[in-house]
Fold each of these.
Amino acid sequence: MSRFLLAACAASLLALPVQAHVTLEKPEAVAGQSYKGVLRLGHGCDGGSPTTSFSVEIPEALALVRPMPKAGWQLSVENAPYTKPISAHGKEITSGVKKITWSGGRVQDGEYDEFIFVGQLRDEASGPIYLPVVQTCEKGEWRWVDVPKAGQSTRAPAPVLRVAAAQKQSTMRVEQVWSRATPNGANVGAGYLRLTNTGSAPDRLLSGATDIANRIEVHEMAMDNGVMKMRALSDGLTLAPGQSVELKPGGYHLMLMGLKQPLKEGASFSGTLKFEKAGDVPVTFNVLGMGAAAPSGGAKEMMDHSHHH
Ligand SMILES: [Cu+2]
């Protein structure tokens, strides 16, 4: 290979900025969360013409958008009604920014610049979201609007934002999870806890599971012909929004059916509770003494006494 060709290869490697599409500095986001979009401009138009205007279209999945002004540039914003309103700070917002244009500035071909906005991804946003950009130069323009199809490369791809689903926050608060020691040979055990439905819809505790028993049922104690009896709640235990329910000895409780090993005071074991809406919630049961009535307050006192005497 001649010296000339080598030089030409090196030059083409150095010419990489031609490949610098308009991209987002942070191409990943999470549904329901705020997002700061930094659009990066890497070069001018064909022939090295300087950029004088930069506009971006905002998809509906990106709501509550506010552009950042740039010194030396005029900012103009087009608003449009949302097809679906979004609530912010307790208010229904029915329209928002559809297009942002920065114009009247100048970015030379060999320079780099950024165009910035903030917004919030809707809860239901998912997958790739495209933000078409038009870069206008003194001579010509680049339309960064192509949406790539599988296996195809495009000359001027639109900046893409990949949106991940939000981690679902549990709407069921589970506290003070405990159990009672069992005598050797017992084939059932009990579990107790306090539940609070922090969601806005009713939910039901359906059942549970643990490695140390065949299954966990939801039971209640109730008077039947003057006799206290327990029965399985086949429809589960319903909690209204905001409601707290304590599962405790003599009332609602979890029943560990087919206990595989005795429960020893001071030990703990894990399991999951199954809720109709909140789904599977992992829990750890702390095993208290056989006579324990609750993990704090009176029960603790009782236990402490039993140790002292
Ligand atoms: Cu029971």
Amino acid sequence: MPRATRPHILVIGGGYVGMYAALRLQRKLRAGEATITVVDPQPYMTYQPFLPEAGAGNLEPRHVVVPLRRVLRHCRVLGGRITSVDHHRRVARFEPLEGEGYDLAYDVLVLAPGSIARTLPIPGLREEGIGFRTVAEAIYLRNHVLSKLDVAASTSDAALRRRALTFVFVGGGYAGVEAMAELEDMARDAVRYYDGITAADMRWVMVEASHRILPEVSEDLGSYTVAELRKRSIEVRLNTRVESLTGGHVVLSDGTEFDAETVVWTAGVRPHPLLESTDLPLDEKKRVRCTAALQVIGVEDAWAAGDSAAVPDLSKTDVVAFTSPSAQHAVRQAKRLADNVIASLRGEPVVDYKHSYAGSVASLGLHKGVAEIYGVKLRGLPAWFMHRTYHMTRMPTTNRKVRVVADWTLALFFHREIVSLGSFENPRQAFEEAVSP
Ligand SMILES: Cc1cc2nc3c(=O)[nH]c(=O)nc-3n(C[C@H](O)[C@H](O)[C@H](O)COP(=O)(O)OP(=O)(O)OC[C@H]3O[C@@H](n4cnc5c(N)ncnc54)[C@H](O)[C@@H]3O)c2cc1C
């Protein structure tokens, strides 16, 4: 039944699903048909597949994010986080960036808080590790790696130098492999300018618990990637786990021990814990259970998609499967979700989401990559070119596309910047020293 009053749609999360769904809702809803509020602690959507290139300095970090307020002109954008949802009462608890929290009433819920890093109770992980999911982490790691080159080039302590030049990545999915390959490529480029350091002095270690890396592509492309990384003297340790990181001392399950000042944790994701503070049904992996039409099962007026939703994969007829946590599904689901929300508001039938996974592209540094799209396998330069072309076409807004291409074009003519701006992390230090007696 069409509604009598103007419904309020609350979108939790302004990432892939939240931003794309809100964009489509604001475009397709008739004037006065509904109001839309989007809540996210960040004022921007992050195009995560470009984070490794932002970390490596090929792209300006501001160009890999999309400002929500600029693109969602017909939505209300609130900065802060939702901490719980009482869907029975149609109320969500909102904690703004500063100040007292308050309740937000809504009629229709779109739940898209995504995922967070999946961690393990490893001693020292909390103190020593860093993730690779946000633009802040990408910026930090770029500065951090370059600052470790500065440390190594300026010390006479051999142990400190070794520790500073040892970089560990845990988890060999596309996020981990791309992040490590891009940062290693950048550091290899940068050491030319450091007296007394060569690429051979650096130690890059990838630790992966399973027998292969890049599970998103076929086994032979995974093996090709291992071989390519090893050619660059990157240690790829398969079937190996991290057992301890206390005090920066890395202990691996194969008995290897060494010190490292950089440990990046990219060992998978888990659904956002906010889901557990809702009255919505969750599956055993703590994802919100959805129908193929992206409706939360068993309740009305609640929709979900992306990394935080268990959506049946209708492209697989032989097994019961759910769509994988990927940008590819998130973007397409967002559009289907928005269309279904509108159909449901208008009392029209909803349509199931169905999409066969097209494949993956991964960059392994400048001019290097692997790609597998609809069964076509590419390696090296063609794969890298495919990676850039694919993601450029997927990057939201013409403004961002142009900026990304401009960054790449400039990089053809000039060497990338190798200056570490680590002091950004403590910008008040110089002033505090000046005012201290
Ligand atoms: C480094 C990296 C590289 C990747 N590369 C690829 C790739 O090449 N191909 C591919 O298909 N996929 C890739 N992915 C995966 C892809 O980015 C995710 O699958 C996709 O972002 C999921 O979309 P989402 O909307 O569910 O979550 P997200 O895009 O993560 O959005 C969730 C949003 O919710 C917000 N949020 C969180 N908590 C709250 C709260 N309490 N209240 C309100 N808002 C909240 C977050 O700030 C965020 O903006 C990559 C991921 C990473 C980290």
